[in-house]
Structures are given as C-alpha cells and as structure tokens.
Amino acid sequence: MNAGGNPGALGFTKIQQKSMNYMIDEGQGRDDFIRYWKLMAEAVADHPSAFAAELMNEPMTLWRPWYMKTWVEVGKAITEVIPDMSVAICDIGEWSGLPSAITKVTGGKEFISREVMDWIENGDNAFYTWHYGDLPQAVQNMQAVSDKWNIPTFGTELGCGQFDAAKAANISHSYWHYSAYCNTGASFGNRQAPEDTFGACILGWGSGDSSACVNN
C-alpha cells in the first residue's frame, strides 16, 4: 500500500471479508456499527452543517441482502436522533454500474427485502451514493435508480468528467480530491518523520488535481 497504488484485491482478502461480514451480518458487529452511528448523530445533532451521513466508504462486500439491511437499520437509528438527517445507502464499492436497462425492467431491487425497500422508497431520508463510472452510462444508471427507487443520488467521489456530467444531469456531485494532504515518503524527499512530515500518503493520495473543477 505505501509503495503506491490501491490494489482492489485487498478488499477481498479473507481478513477483510471476515471483518465486513461481522459488521453487516445480524449480531454484535452490526449492533456496534449501528450504535456508533447513533452516537455520531447525537454528537452532531446541534450542528446545522451536519445534514447527511455517508455510512462507509466503498464497502467491499457482495452480500447485498446484509449490507442493505444494515444501511437501513443504521438509518433508523440516526433518524431517531435527527429526524431529517439524510442517510446514504450504496451498493458494493459505491458502484455506479448497475445497468439502467436492467433497473428499468426489474427495478434493480434484487436480493433486497420488501421491508428494506419500503424504508428506502417511502421515507424522506435515503439517498444513493456512487463513485466514478463510465460516461454517459454511469449517469444514466443513477437516473434509473433515482426514478425506480424514488430517491436522490449523490456522486460523492467523482473525477472531473463525472463531476461535470452529474452537474449537467442535475445530480448532486462532489470532486475527489482537490489536494493531497500529506508530504511523507520518497515523493517528498523522505523527510524526517515525524518532525518534518504530515500524513501517510497512502491509497489514492496523488490522484487529485488541486486546480480541477474549482469553478464548478
């Protein structure tokens, strides 16, 4: 990881999958995750800038029935504290690739219980988050989800192409990322740590463009 890159296969190691299963399957792990977010809601309840909760960044798990149930149970706990808080739901890795043609025909609701879909479709709190994706298909896919599930979507981590396309489609959007908040490692001359360094410079730290999208 520290050598560079962000190998996706790390998300499917045995230890990572065991951790994900513990968090999203019914039991102590899920209970703790729900409690964490309820405590977070209590901590920010008086802050008007805290308008939404994105529960987990790019969760790498294939168990759609479990993770969708978990997002909804967390959402219920959060809205007990802040009734109008928006709560993110997402698919594996915040994937934007569920084909719009399939969603339009089947609703894109495979392996999601009726109870879970009722909370998503009939409430005022859920929004669907997505990252990147091929254009224009990613935007079309999100428009189909929004229509069939009766919820807004939000591209919470987008490059400039997706950022501009989401804006044009009137979809909420944010750019990833303007600055690399670190100066650690060989790229910065191997400065003395920790006295002359800040941050770890891991994952995608060097992928953003500090001048990108700033006028949008």
Q: Estimate nothing, just give the exact number of structural domains.
A: 1
Give the radius of gyration. Answer: 19 Å
Please give the largest β-sheet.
Answer: 5 strands, parallel
Distance between the termini: 32 Å
Please work out how many helical segments DSSP would assign. 7
> What would you call the shape?
globular
Q: Mind telling me the CATH superfamily name? A: Glycosidases
Q: What amount of the residues lies in strands?
A: 5-15%
CATH architecture: Alpha-Beta Barrel
- Given as residue ranges, the uncertain stretches (5+ residues, pLDDT < 50) are none
Arithmetic mean pLDDT: 91
CATH first level? Alpha Beta
Please name the CATH topology. TIM Barrel
Q: Please provide the count of β strands.
A: 5
Helix content: 25-40%
Structural class: alpha/beta
Order of SSEs: HHEHEHHEHEHE
The spatial strand order of the largest sheet comes to 1-2-3-4-5
